[in-house]
Amino acid sequence: MPVLSRVQKLFPVPHIMSFPSVGVDVSDTSLKYIQFERVHAHDVNLVTKYWGDLTMPSGIVDRGNVHDIAKLSAVLNEMREKTNAQYVNMSLPEERAYLFETTLPIDTPRKEIRGLIDFRLEENVPLSPRDAYFDYVIVGSDVKLRILHIVVSVYAQSTINSYYDACVQAHLTPLSFEIEAQAIARASIPAQQAGTYMVVDFGKTRMGVGIVNNGILRYTSTIEIAGEQISADMRAVLGDVPESELTHIKNIKGLSHTKDNEHIATILRGYAETIVEELGIRIHYWDTRDIDSEARTIKKVIICGGSANLFGLPEFLSQKLELPTERAQVWANVLSLDNQIPEITRRYSYGYGTAIGLALRGFI
Ligand SMILES: Nc1ncnc2c1ncn2[C@@H]1O[C@H](COP(=O)(O)OP(=O)(O)OP(=O)(O)O)[C@@H](O)[C@H]1O
Ligand SMILES: [Mg+2]
What we know:
By secondary structure, the protein is an alpha/beta fold. It has a single domain (3-228, 268-359), classed as Nucleotidyltransferase, domain 5, CATH 3.30.420.380. It is 35% helix and 28% strand. The chain is built from 11 helices and 15 strands. The strands form 4 sheets. A 5-stranded mixed β-sheet has the order 3-2-1-6-10. The two termini are 30 Å apart. The structure holds adenosine-5'-triphosphate and magnesium ion. Magnesium ion is lined by residues 25, 27, 201, 203, 305, 354.
């Protein structure tokens, strides 16, 4: 497959969007998939056709790097057998993404934009242009200054090729690759909603952070705090209790300082404080970046990922960050909760934000 064809997978052309495709979220320890269908052309609500969660044996993907393409392909193959899928929209790890913003003269011919950005890669990302694939979006223009504002997302070719090859080995055709936070935004920000949101994916192995402006991902980074680390700290106090019990304590008692939860609440609050600090640094960075003059103040923090279930977390973040913080409504762009009950329970569905967003490609 020529390199260019692979690159084009990053920019799905509209006509292929109508193919029935599965959203596939690959994490270090899990592979989540979901597929929707619109039963009648006029239906507003989508129906969940397939969904599931497969365990990724350790060592296959580490911090977003694929170490064993054949084994990743085996897990994808298992997914294909369960869903009969042919086409997939697949997540790319934010840990391996580089995003930067640049400007070009407003009258730059479309066909020259790519080449001009290519020249700017080297000064903006720690990759040689020869080893990189990139995608770009024109996010606005300034008629007075006569410039276009452009957001560029870049991956090492080796990263994308490894996910691509794993799909092909599993007899799957990837229609698109997308940074996790962009997919989460599609699921959890009401369609066509303008403004700036911070999306936080608080998972099992890491916390992914994205800042999305008018639906477009402008910033992404990773924080090394996650569910499995919190569980390990809880076990140091509680002993070798099963994960389900820890999940129950996290979700029912969480940050609340009740008598029977003093010790654990102190540990969890320590994590919550660090999360506030880390998110605060990123919010400050965003607020002080002088890129363009449009209204870009973050109006809400949206948290998803299984660890978003932590009791008291949204309230804690709202108070300390002085920004409204909510758990994601991951079904908001799929169906109306007034007349349909999603197949995946609320708590579990927070971990499906990325997969849902990927599966929504082509529907909204
Ligand atoms: N009700 C729940 N259902 C599922 N996971 C939960 C729940 N409550 C808390 N969690 C925690 O959420 C984490 C799993 O979250 P999630 O499914 O988002 O992770 P992941 O996608 O597998 O990992 P990654 O961090 O690599 O993205 C676990 O640490 C788990 O303990
Ligand atoms: Mg995840």
